[in-house]
């Protein structure tokens, strides 16, 4: 057992003729010479019982420093390679000769530690469990390549009308009882008193024709004058078909234009739009498949399609029919 080994980072290679890390030697104390800036990494491959630092510039008579007096340590090196033993002295387990070592290390970042270092002792570390940890949990039986549904269905439509159209009468077409109608002025003005004519030619006020009614309550698009809008759900007993919405009064406070939204929530007819992706970047090609589910053979020229951009711009699209109820994929 070597009781004393002195290691200097400035030992010359002429002293080196063997490898220490493969020799199996055990060292009780390893003195590291940290003169100048030759700080050594503490992650040596040696099986050292204690690691001492020796600073010959700051210690009288070359006496080794104690643990609490150690000044420097380096942690930035990849590793320290003990290259060789000195040829001075016998190399065996009983030899207590101080031996100079040739140290080769990689440059790194050195850290100056506080003057007073604390040694942490752990009395229970040897009693801690060293068993391998494992856990398991159940997962759902679903494929990882689950397809994302990019399809959206529309059961309604909207139309912008003028005040003159409203006074003359606007057609509202439904295909199922219980449709919801919303009238929103395009200006911050009131909506005139409206009447509705049923498919059976009954002329009713909106309150009389409504199962649910709301007026002057903000809802929906904040860019519109929603505080003056009117909403109603047509009574189911009034049936479905073509209703006529009109104003019989004239006032200077009436708005010049209106937006009418019809939501035919129970309709068997709907418009299905499916895109080939859920998001697009600039320059990407957008492909969409449009299907009108109503089992009626519509003329392709009776359908107008537009793409509305993020800035509200309308881009007209050209359509061609694939089959009776499907239109050819659009490319933009």
UniProtKB/TrEMBL annotation:
It comes from Legionella quateirensis. The lineage of its organism: Bacteria, Pseudomonadati, Pseudomonadota, Gammaproteobacteria, Legionellales. Residues 125-264, 267-325 form the DUF4785 domain. InterPro entries: DUF4785_central, DUF4785_N. This is Uncharacterized protein.
